[in-house]
Amino acid sequence: MSQRQVLQVFEQYQRARTQFVQTVAELATRPQNIETLQNAGVMALLRPLLLDVVPNIQQTAALALGRLANYNDDLAEAVVKGDILPQLVYSLAEQNRFYKKAAAFVLRAVGKHSPQLAQAIVDCGALDTLVICLEDFDPGVKEAASWALGYIARHNSELSQSVVDAGAIPLLVLCIQEPEIALRRIAASALSDVSKHSPELAQTVVDAGAIAHLAQMILNPDAKLKRQVLSALSQIAKHSVDLAEMVVEAEIFPVVLTCLKDSDEYVKKNAATLIREIARHTPELSQLIVNAGGVAAIIDCIGSCKGNVRLPGIMMLGYVAAHSENLAMAVIISKGVPQLAICLSEEPEDHIKAAAAWSLGQIGRHTPEHARAVAVAGVLPVLLSLYMATESSEDLQVKAKKALKNILQKCTHLSALEPLLHDAPPNILKHIVGQFSKVLPHDSKARRLFVTSGGLKKVQEIKSEAGSLLQEYINTINNCYPEEIVRYYSPGYSEALLERVENYHPVL
To answer: How many Cβ atoms sit within 10 Å of the Cβ of residue 138?
Structure first.
């Protein structure tokens, strides 16, 4: 056999290996092929190819493994059980940039499924190598490493702490300053994933100087980058007053308000979430948002979108209103109540209705003036029907009931309360009757109106236990009127009169 024929055998073998990994990588892009590949034992066949002498075969084998592991946790588990991770980590440090990207992709694909799988990646020593990749000259390698680190950190605070301990944070902060948009997006996302778990982890991100760089990117034209930047800032701000103040001090107002008008729904939602997380901490931070025009901007935002995008804005109004009478009045003056009333009526999802109910309750619970502003928007009958509807979720029923009680206990706008007299169950009715018993003794005009509108008649029809709070309220109302008027409107009075007519013998 000539030398050429001998070499030809090797060339054929190499071509076959190349064709095999390329085809498997291609097949792995389609979900319908995954099970067949798995049953054919693809993992065991790809594993030795990770250490192939031909770099291209190594890279394609890693890419195929990543695609398979990305598909479901069974396949990701198979990567761990097949002892493939140590090989990847070893090669990650040694090989060229194409292989590093593919290897980091496998680690990300395995780590994303569960804390256990992410822990397996930590246990095989991958973090140190991934952190070294964050210093690679190739932006694609940095991006792949950032992505893998973010996917590991997002599961829980222990894994997030492992990423911090490996020294990733200062390098991720450098990555958000790179010119490549894709790298900045992923690095900002990874910082968000680390920050979300605890104040201590958020503090490590702050200490690395992340806030100033993130704040500068709020006005970047790239929507996907803005989403991640706003998310990272809100994950930092949510934990404590100090962290929220640090975010505010980076001069995010009023620029962040422009994001509420963004064409990208997620940018809107994340901007509203950031503002909500700042507003909920203290009256001072809420006041700062009001002064910057934040409440009016959130109300416009709620009006311009639907569904879950509205949710953080709805809640933000509730948090602002909860702090004080003045802040609740700021929400009313900015016409927040009609907008929340629309959400309460038209949103199909119970959890969004529940948030709107909660916020309206926070606005209306302060003074009669606040309660009136909510009542005249026609909110009370809607809250009552949501509370009584059997198809409402338990959370919605609880929030609607609480909001109703909050508003009713302050509401002296009787014409808004009167329709509820006819529909409310006893536990709500006592609050409504209670309000009438407070107002009627001091308001002659209201007393007259209460008779002509049928309110007094309705009160006489209410069945209450002797000595109960409800009975006390009814007695207080009845004491506002002459006895014969009360008797006249009591049930059975007309029959008693007719009986007297029948039994009356005229004096002839």
So the answer is: 14
**Helix, strand or coil, per DSSP, at residue 254:** coil
User: Length of the chain in residues, anyone?
Assistant: 508
> From CA 199, how far away is CA 499, in angstroms rounded?
78
275, 277, 208: which is closest to 239 by C-alpha?
277
C-alpha 97/C-alpha 191 separation (Å) is: 23
Among residues 403, 310, 324, the alpha carbon closest in space to that of 352 is found at 310
Is 386:408 a contact under the CB 8 Å cutoff?
no
The residues of the chain scoring below 70 in pLDDT are: 1, 494-502, 508
Tokens of 487: 């008797």
For residue 330, the model assigns a pLDDT of 95
Q: 450: which residues sit within 8 A by CB, 6+ positions away?
A: 414, 418, 436, 440, 456
Task: At 429, list the tokens.
Answer: 């009715």
Q: Running DSSP on this structure, what letter comes out for residue 491?
A: T
The span from the CA of 373 to the CA of 390, in Å, is 28
**By C-alpha distance, which of 463, 395, 402 is closest to 428?**
402
pLDDT at 54: 87
8 Å CB contact between 417 and 375: yes
End-to-end CA distance of the chain: 148
* CA-based torsion, 269, 271, 274, 280: positive or negative: negative
Instruction: Look at residues 191, 148, 155 and name the one whose alpha carbon lies nearest to residue 170.
Output: 191
CA atoms of 259 and 247, how far apart (whole Å): 16
Domain 250-410 top-level CATH class: mainly alpha
Q: Which residues contact 143 (CB under 8 A, 6 or more apart)?
A: 180, 182, 183, 186, 187
- CA 220, distance to chain mean position in Å, is 23
- pLDDT at residue number 1: 67
Report the 10 Å Cβ neighbour count for 462: 16
Query: Nearest to residue 277, comparing CAs of 298, 300, 262, 291?
Result: 298
Main-chain phi, psi angles of 58, to 5 degrees:
-55, -50
pTM for the predicted model, two decimal places: 0.87
DSSP H or E run through 474: helix 469-478
Please give the angle made by the CA atoms of 267, 357 and 351, to the nearest 5 degrees.
55
For the chain, the domains span: 250-410, 411-495
Instruction: At 228, list the tokens.
Output: 């991640």
Q: What residues contact 46, with CB distance under 8 A and at least 6 apart?
A: 21, 24, 61, 64, 65
